[in-house]
Amino acid sequence: MWKKNWGYLIVVLFLLGACSSGKKALEKGNYIEAIEKAVNRLSSDPNNKKAQAVVRNGYSMGMDYYQEEIDHILSGNDPFKWGKTLNIMNRVNHLSNLIRRVPAARKIVSSPKMYSSELSEATNRAAEERYQAGLISLARPAREDAKDAYYHFAQADQLVPSYKDVLEKMYEAKDRATIHVILESIAFPLRKYELSAEFFYEQVINRMKQLYPSSSFVAFYTPIEAEKQQLDYPDLVVRMEFYDFFVGQPQHFEKQENLDRIVEREVEVKVGRDSTRIEKRQERLKGKIKIISDEVVSQGLLNVKIEEFRTQKLILSEEVPGEFLWRNQYGIFVGDEGVLTKEQIQILNNKAVPPPAPQDLFVEFTRPIYARLTDRLNSYFRKYN
Asked: Which residues pair with 259 in a beta bridge?
């Protein structure tokens, strides 16, 4: 009974909280929250005295507070004062729209204030101050200033789409703020296997472009893409080279094992001329298995370097090791199959097959290198984003 009453009490308290009149929010000066709660309460309970009082007093106090804030901001020297003023005007319009939506609230505040022409003027002034801030940042030489300029121009465009020549300025700032990186195709000096690293290179360049899309401040190019876009002076060049790659000699191992296992089986036992019963009896099973393992290991290193294009200064040089062990196991068995484990059964189902070609071993060898390499490149370049 106590648990049921306690659960009911929790539900009641939740409903009471959901139906708050907004009085506590008003006491804290949270005018928007107070009006929202009060108006929602009046929409379901038009005669609620507390909610009526919150709308009446809260709206009046809120309008006084927001007007004081606008006067204070506009009389100051804040470079983005019109943007802050615009935010306040939007809050006032939000409050007014809340009241206009509910008839019970509209009876209390018959003519809620709405900014219309003032809002349009403030929007244009806010766009202009962001545009001017963008010009100031763009005039500075640092890359971070170009990033700031881009964000200012983007906000101006968000306020007033295609404001002045803001789209051209955004493009200029974005280009100056972006680190342009050429990811060179992979050198492979070891030709005895006639391997191709093109698939690996394509994976890497696609992953870096995925991590750094066109909206980011790092752009990756293949040499062909750089030539098409006439990117004569990139910022950085990433060079990669595989070396010390080898495919080991095939190894052949055999292991023979005697198997012995006691199992419990159900046996039908005759207890009379026409009747039987089932009994559980233990039985020892035996067998002999030979497991044959064929193995080939491939190993090597990838050297990755990041250089400044203009100065050819080496910024980063690291080696990324990789290894892949190909193993095929199959076997021969004689005896009672009930002695076998699931793993042994799987091995016996396999067949002897030749080792993969060197190119296939190379592909498998590069898989862990790909993950390590792209993680390392990402950890280096994300500081520019």
From this structure: 287
Per the listing, tokens 């012995």 go with 260
Which residue ranges of the chain lie beneath pLDDT 70? 1-21, 187-194
> 3, 126, 38, 141: which is closest to 74 by C-alpha?
126
- The answer to whether residues 163 and 332 touch, using CB atoms and an 8 Å cutoff, is no
- Spatial separation of the C-alpha atoms in residues 300 and 223, rounded to whole Å: 25
Angle (CA) 335 337 339, round 5°: 90
Per the confidence metrics, is the pTM higher than 0.70? yes
DSSP reduced 3-state for 231: coil
Q: How many CA atoms lie within 13 A of 299 on its CB side?
A: 5
Find the helix or strand (DSSP H, E) in which 311 lies: none
CA atoms of 88 and 321, how far apart (whole Å): 58
Domain boundaries, the chain: 20-115, 125-177, 178-385
Strands 236-247 and 276-308: antiparallel
Q: Which two tokens stand for residue 359?
A: 């190119």
User: How many helices and strands, by DSSP H and E, does the chain display?
Assistant: 13, 6
Architecture of the domain spanning 178-385: 2-Layer Sandwich (3.30)
- At residue 338, φ and ψ (nearest 5 deg) are -65, -15
Residues 21, 50: contact at Cβ < 8 Å? yes
Q: Token pair of 22, please?
A: 């907004």
By C-alpha distance, which of 344, 316, 319 is closest to 330?
A: 344
| Per-residue pLDDT reduced to its tens digit, 151-197 | 999 999 999 999 999 999 999 999 999 999 999 988 665 556 667 78
